[in-house]
Specification:
Aminoglycoside 3'-phosphotransferase, Chain: A, domain 2, two-stranded antiparallel ribbon, Aminoglycoside phosphotransferase, Phosphorylase Kinase, domain 1
């Protein structure tokens, strides 16, 4: 077990950053599966504060990645409705007693639940994704990291460790371990083919990362921003916006998203099978991270360990479902 823990000191934080005085206890709000998010009200204003996971921030490249992603968000905000973190004392990143924070002005809006997303929303978001892809980020001089295609995940290592610890997911992992190696090989092959064509994008433009004020969307949570193959980003994001609560993709919403994107950029040409097989990569990365959390390899506390355990099961099922839908989606894209 790693002993890197959250060290939250909100009263001291708002005092040092001159954000006023707390007028109520910080309230935990939904902030995704990586970090912790709080609503904070002071004598000055209301803020959303993201306390960054100290386990993640201990990675050697994490700090630079967050600084770069906020630069991307700030530039994107000139072209679309985007919300970067507040820049205070010349920096987006606030560090207090070894705890890192991002601070945002509060948005009075709401993110859409899956059942609330319409084809109109999808078309609108397709246009916004195209606008992000068309944005010139070259002035930021963000380096393109060479992807390491030699990395092979040792799924058997996690299986053996899970069996020793009697983890809940060991039977499910064992039943699907051959598939994991097959999906990994497909993703690696597709990644090599698609790696030469990249743009800078948000890379996690799910419904939860868009706040709506009536019909106006504001793009939040830019922490994953960076280089990505544009057609992979398009298809993956279209799926985010067209999936229902059972994990099935609605064809009408999916094609509305694609049409919205196409209306901004013109005809699309891609090897859709390679694009779709590349879609295994992010899910497999998430599975490995969830396994590390579940097994206390990379984890801060019991809550995170339990989240990792539940996400292992969810992600394996999602991978199986994704494989089943690839042929249908490929046909939609080719029609």
């Amino acid at each position: 077990m790693n002993n890197v823990q959250y060290n939250l000191k909100f009263e001291k934080l708002v005092a040092e950053l001159e954000l006023g005085e707390l007028i109520s206890k910080p309230k935990a709000i939904s902030g995704g599966l990586l970090h912790r998010m709080y609503a904070i009200e002071t004598t000055h204003a209301k803020y959303a504060v993201k306390a960054l996971n100290p386990q993640i921030m201990s990675r050697p490249t994490a700090m630079q990645n967050y600084i770069q992603s906020e630069k991307i968000a700030n530039l994107a905000a000139n072209f679309i409705h985007a919300q970067p973190a507040k820049v205070i004392n010349g920096s987006s990143m606030q560090i207090l007693d070894n705890q890192c924070y991002l601070i945002f002005d509060w948005i009075d809006g709401k993110s859409l639940e899956l059942h609330e997303v319409t084809e109109t929303h999808c078309e609108h978001m397709g246009m916004i994704l195209a606008d992000i892809h068309k944005t010139d980020f070259s002035q930021l001089h963000i380096p393109k990291f060479q992807l390491d295609f030699s990395k092979e995940t040792d799924w058997n290592y996690y299986l053996v460790k899970g069996q020793k610890e009697n983890s809940d997911w060991t039977i499910l992992l064992a039943d699907n371990i051959q598939k994991l190696y097959e999906w990994s090989a497909q993703a690696k092959n597709a990644s090599v083919i698609l790696a030469s064509n990249t743009v800078i994008s948000h890379r996690d433009l799910e419904p939860k990362n868009v706040m709506w004020q009536q019909d106006n969307p504001i793009i939040i949570d830019w922490e994953s921003a960076g280089y990505i193959n544009p057609m992979h980003d398009l298809v993956e994001t279209a799926m985010y916006w067209s999936v229902d609560h059972t994990g099935n993709v609605d064809k009408g919403r999916f094609l509305a998203f694609i049409d919205g994107y196409r209306s901004r950029v013109g005809n699309l040409n891609a090897n859709w099978r390679m694009v779709l097989e590349n879609g295994f990569a992010g899910k497999l990365d998430w599975l490995e991270y969830s396994l590390k959390r579940s097994l206390w390899i990379e984890c801060t506390d019991d809550e995170e360990q339990q989240m990792g355990t539940s996400q292992v099961t969810w992600t394996i099922e999602a991978l199986k479902q994704y494989e089943d839908m690839i042929s249908d989606v490929e046909n939609w894209l080719g029609s």
